[in-house]
Specification:
alpha+beta; Alpha-Beta Plaits; 2 domains
C-alpha cells in the first residue's frame, strides 16, 4: 500500500523574503470548479530536465527490466510480461527477448527509450527523477495561510515528505526558517524537520 503524507510547512522570517517565496513557488491554478486553488510548485524550486517524461505505453518499466535490468529483474519481468501478454515464458531468456522484440517491437523501443534516459539523466522516468530530487512525486491538495512574519503551507505527498526539496528551499532563502511537520496516514508515523541555509538543524521523530 502506498504511503500518504500530510505535511504542514511553516516558513518564518522577513516579510520581503516570504513574499518572494509566495510569488515564486505558491501559485494559483484557475479552473471553473476551483478558480484560485493554491499550488505548491516543486518544479519551481528544482526544475526537472526538459527532455525527461514518464512513459505512456504499458509495460515500459517491465520491458526495461527485461532488456536492460539485472538477471533477477529480467527473470521477474519475463514472467510478468508472459502472463500479461498471454505468452509462454517456457523458453530461454534470450529467445524470449528476441521473440518479444519481433512480435511487439514497441515494447523494445520503450525499453530502449528508458535506457537512453538512464544514460542521459541517471534515471529511467520522470517519476524516478522527482523521488530522487524532491523526495516524492509532488504536492497536491495545497492551501496557504499568510501572516505578517510567516507562511503556513498545508499539502499532501505520496511515499515520503519532500526533504530534499526542503533543503533546496532553505539554501535559496537563507534568511528564512523552514519548519516541516509530517504525518503518515497508514502506519501513523510523525516527524518534524527544521531547515535553514541549506542545513537540517533538527529532525525529531514524534512517534
Amino acid at each position: 500500500m502506498a504511503q500518504h503524507y500530510r505535511n504542514t510547512l511553516r516558513i518564518v522570517g522577513p516579510k520581503k523574503e516570504l513574499d518572494r517565496v509566495r510569488t515564486a513557488h505558491l501559485s494559483s491554478r484557475h479552473s471553473p470548479s476551483a478558480p484560485k486553488t493554491p499550488v505548491f510548485d516543486f518544479s519551481s524550486v528544482i526544475p526537472p530536465p526538459a527532455g525527461l517524461s514518464d512513459p505512456e505505453a504499458p509495460f515500459a518499466v517491465l520491458s526495461h527490466d527485461l532488456y536492460f535490468g539485472t538477471e533477477e529483474e529480467a527473470e521477474i519481468a519475463q514472467n510478468v510480461l508472459a502472463d500479461r501478454l498471454s505468452l509462454s515464458p517456457a523458453r530461454p531468456p534470450a529467445q524470449f527477448k528476441e521473440d518479444l522484440k519481433d512480435s511487439n517491437p514497441g515494447i523494445y523501443n520503450q525499453a530502449k527509450t528508458l535506457e537512453e534516459n538512464a544514460q542521459k539523466y541517471g534515471v529511467t522516468t520522470l517519476a524516478e527523477w522527482k523521488i530522487r530530487h524532491w523526495g516524492c512525486t509532488g504536492a497536491h491538495d495545497a492551501s496557504v495561510d499568510a501572516e505578517e512574519d510567516a507562511l503556513t503551507v498545508y499539502f499532501d505527498t505520496d511515499d515520503a515528505p519532500p526533504l530534499p526539496l526542503l533543503l533546496a528551499l532553505s539554501s535559496r532563502y537563507p534568511a528564512l526558517r523552514f519548519e516541516l511537520d509530517y504525518f503518515e496516514t497508514v502506519d501513523l508515523l510523525e516527524g518534524r524537520v527544521h531547515a535553514q541555509a541549506g542545513r537540517i538543524d533538527e529532525e525529531a521523530a514524534l512517534s
